[in-house]
Amino acid sequence: MHRAAAPCGKGKDTAMSEVAKPRILVVEDDPDLRTILKLQLASRGFEITEAENGAEGFRAIQAEVPDCVILDLMMPVMDGFGFLKRVRSIMNTKDVPILILTASEDERNRVRGFQYQADAYMSKPYDLEKLTVLVEKLLARAPQPV
Known about the structure:
There is one protein chain. Helix content is 41%, strand content 16%. By secondary structure, it is of the alpha/beta class. It has one domain (21-138): Rossmann fold. A 5-stranded parallel β-sheet has the order 2-1-3-4-5, sandwiched between helices.
């Protein structure tokens, strides 16, 4: 079960520094965009894990369930739809919030993403502020472990 997301406050007391940062798994085949996302999201208080395709992302989510996933659709080895299908079929990962972030402007991909139970969809190029707000909303809605 994924852990509860911590507030992204900037307090400096000991209690805040011990609070775990929300973990985001970024599944993106473009290494430059992966690096940009990692740097931008880390600067907003998130801990980032990276995967370069859906198969690597699936292995990563099985090893350590993140608090949220940012997922590209068009990738080699296993595309985003294959990743979604597998993740949603496993009990301990079926509720992890997944945001599709893709360059595809095909409305059919948006519909298919939601059919495969993605929680949100955003097109590239993206606005960092909107992406951050969307991730924080997904984290707030995510089921908390008992």
